[in-house]
Design a protein that fits this description.
The protein is of the alpha+beta class. It has one domain. The chain has 4 helices and 4 strands, in the order E-E-E-E-H-H-H-H. The strands form 2 sheets. A two-stranded antiparallel sheet has the order 1-2. Strands 3-4 form a two-stranded antiparallel ribbon. A hairpin with a 6-residue loop joins strand 1 and strand 2. About 20% of the residues are buried.
């Protein structure tokens, strides 16, 4: 009998998903070491919203990310979505 895949919780949107990746709160290229598990959609969305410099200087904690207006609006939407592939487009106005 096939086993059900294990689910993991995304640290940002708090959804239970089949797969998470490791996100450096301060980008590794800028010396960051602390990582949190993020679903693919949250991970892609953060990097489409913000440059690494912005993530390292202003948004280097989950609390800071959740408090940011665009991220809060995104989280309100994504929390209603099932565990599936969601297409993420690059924003025209990254910060």
């Amino acid at each position: 009998m096939p086993r059900k895949p294990e689910k993991s919780q995304c640290a940002l949107c708090e959804r239970w998903v089949s797969q998470v990746s490791r996100h450096h709160l301060i980008p590794k290229s800028l010396g960051g070491r602390e990582v949190v598990p993020l679903c693919a959609t949250c991970h892609k969305t953060l990097h489409s919203f913000f440059y690494n410099v912005t993530l390292s200087k202003e948004l280097h904690s989950l609390e800071a990310l959740r408090a940011q207006e665009d991220v809060a609006r995104y989280l309100a939407w994504v929390r209603k979505q099932p565990d599936r592939a969601i297409r993420v487009r690059t924003r025209r106005q990254r910060r």
